Amino acid sequence: MKIKAVRTHILQAELSQALACSRGWFSTRTAMLVEIETDRGIVGWGECYGPARITAAAVEHVAPWLIGEDPVRSDYLWQLIYARMRDHGQKGAVIQALGGIDIALWDIKGKYFDAPVHQLLGGPQRTRISAYATGLYRRRAADPIQYLAEEAAGYVAEGFSALKLRVGFGVEEDAAVTRAVREAIGPSAALMIDANHAYDSIAAIRLGRMIEQHDVRWFEEPVPPEDIAGYRAVRSALSIPIAGGECEFTRFGFRELFVMHALDIAQPDTCAAGGLSECKKIADMAEAFGIRYNPHVWGTGIAIAASLQLLAVLPPHTRPSLMPMAPILELDRTEHPIRQAILVEPLEHVRGVIQVPEGPGLGIEVDRKALARFVAR
Ligand code: CA
């Protein structure tokens, strides 16, 4: 089998209302899909997290190296692209592009061997994955305390046992909102907070101390990803577990975070950190360092499917027993017109639990008519 063509698809959709995290407002959702076609008629799909036009340019730059190669040799092809691009992109868009390509190669590999990716990655530890609701963004509405508490209660009513709140809007306001959300969801649902690296370690520690009483499951991206010393300071000052890693890339990037014990929970994005091949390696490394792995997920059904295939094979956080604690899926509940529309069969949760796709490859089928509707001009 040989690779015949590599194509990129830049998709875009307007949102009905703008949303904000601490980094700013956004009113559109974009996606960058990678399609790899083989001479056997098998087509594989991948997705790149990151700025769509930059990742598309990076995929198109390396695409000629893939033509004529055997797509089953995914580790070899990963290393070939990484080595040729090393001088120009050990992190960021180049690795995001490599990740999208790698996911498409795994989709092909699964279809070629007629097996779901998780079977080829080592076999499933589980076939049903608990999801947490990611949402609770700011809207252009009057009182965040009121609308965020209502939104949070809605997720619990839908069946989610865990949810994640955006913070990073000022320490006092964050503390008030965290308290309101905890009161709205009751004591049994898990509550995580995500600052999207809004703070320095001084502000992050202050916020953490103000909300420790509200049983926060993790504090995500308290400080900028480059500030490893800041991560360590926050982690040693607080009893709340510290999470991060959606802005880190490859085993080489995570090696630094792990050796420095900067995190309790690593969150590589499968579509950013280097694809399924690389994230499996990062996950194995995380286990060796005693660090939990919960992937960051922010994309279309292709990103969700790739994350589910990986989540199926990850070891439990706590050793097998009657009630092992398993890694969980980040399920974005904010508006994303493209997310499920491009799948022939959407990947939906039932009471906060989602089934790992069992079909060959990623286990999904892309709806090309839907794809055409979202092509960016
Ligand atoms: Ca995040």
For the record, what is the CATH homologous superfamily label of the largest domain? Enolase-like C-terminal domain
Q: Which oligomeric state applies?
A: single chain
Number of E strands: 13
Cα radius of gyration in angstroms: 20 Å
Structural class: alpha/beta
How much of the sequence lies in strands comes to 15-25%
- Molecules bound to protein: calcium ion
Sheet of most strands: 9 strands, mixed
Based on the coordinates given, report the CATH architecture of the largest domain: Alpha-Beta Barrel
Q: How many distinct folded domains?
A: 2
Order of helices and strands: EEEHHHHEEHEHEHEHEHEHEHEEH
Helix tally equals: 12
CATH C-level class of the largest domain is: Alpha Beta
The backbone outline, from C-alpha atoms, is globular
Distance between the termini: 34 Å
**Could you estimate the helical fraction of the residues in percent?**
25-40%
Low-pLDDT windows of residues? none
Question: Would you write up a description of this structure?
Answer:
This protein is of the alpha/beta class. It is 38% helix and 21% strand. The chain contains twelve helices and 13 strands. Strands 4, 6, 7, 8, 9, 10, 11, 12 and 13 form a nine-stranded mixed sheet that branches. Strand 2 and strand 3 form a beta hairpin. Calcium ion binds next to loops.
